[in-house]
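Issue: copy button drops trailing tokens. Both records pasted manually instead:
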Amino acid sequence: MNAELITGELTVSGLARSFAVRLPPEQQGIFLAGDDVSWTPAWVEGAVQTSLNAVWGIMHHLGGTTHRDNPGPGDVFARLAPLELPD
């Protein structure tokens, strides 16, 4: 995941996962949202989900945390991320 963002090979999968990527400080601070950077393009659900992801990313970037009983998307991303299928 980090490699595809750092090398500039941006894919929809890479953009949709960008909120959960841990980059060096000088590369942090830009969070994308909208149906065009989601796993469900052209659907409101994708726009809403990427917006929630971006808000979590901004909160985390600024040093905030979520309550342990109500984790945000980045807190559980490794467990709930979409499966990567072979080509």
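Record 2 (pasted manually too):
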Amino acid sequence: MKDKVILAYSGGLDTTAIIPWLKENYDYDVVCVCIDVGQESELEGLEERAALSGASKLYIEDVVDEFVDEYVIPTVQANAVYENKYLLGTSFARPVIAKRLVEIARKEGAVAICHGATGKGNDQVRFELSIKALAPDIKIIAPWRCNETWKMQSREDEIQYCKEHGIDLPFSADNSYSRDRNLWHISHEGLELEDPANEPNFDHLLVLGVTPEKAPEEGEYVTLTFEKGVPTAVNGEKMKASDIIRTLNKLGGKHGIGIIDIVENRVVGMKSRGVYETPGGTILMEAHTQLEELILDRPTLSYKKLVSNEFANLVYEGKWFTPLREALQAFVEKTQERVTGEVKFKLYKGNIIKAGTTSPYSLYSESLASFTTGELYDHHDAEGFINLFGLSMKVRALKDMHLAD
């Protein structure tokens, strides 16, 4: 009996070409595994395509709810955003995919896991760190780094290789954007985006929504309900978190929300440019942030910003399965115990405009914040506070004056 390899399979040209390549160079039985993280139409026709390409078996694994509940929501609770803009859509999908690949590898008794990530990108790092953390004994194969046996350098090469191995599928040789899609977002790279001097061709590029210019002239009010930092309802209608994201994706896409064009620093050392559509995620992140600013005290909120940045870096770098991520998440979960309430906002031409936030745990006191003097705050108390708060600054200044004399 031949050894088995688990192939992370999308059904695209790259992973289709990998099937005969694995059989030819390793003499493995190829078990294809497609992990459904909400990419929708990209899953159509995969079973027939995998069989025609020579795979011995295909798994299609729906992990959407696991992805949202165990990876997306903790990242939202952490307010983790990479380099101030990127909402980590691809980054936090990779560990849940790797986890399921390892589970199926164990079930099938496979000796190796193969992925189609290139040698220039972040995904090779994310997949392999996750696999090493969960199954250090399993071999990892990355064809794009196998220079002696992987000779294909273009889509035309891959199509020709497939045909030579009896695989004649309707792949197009036309170059297009390199995209990654899941329930949270869709990313776009390549073509005109490779030159930062070029404006994105949004009419050709966008999938989940429209530009703010093409959004409706009338705004739309939305109310999100949170319980302990977890979204539980949209406009009063309770639903699971994955359905909330689906609902917000439609609303956000309609109003031109969550389109960003960034140049980011990849883990492997280079800068890359991409356009990301994250309509629902952008709304969810903003609503959660608005609720927290009403509830968390100043030192907790300040320290949480440090944690948010480190959490984002860990997720981006593929270090999900690490003690540090677990420790940071434990801190975040403690901060979420009172993050309960409702956030109302208006969506209008790419903007998320505050329209009222309420919480039973709000630390905002109208009587304290008012310009009128109340029982809890005496203006005269501020003088002594300022004297003590600025004492070290005053002492230093006095010392400087003395030295100057």
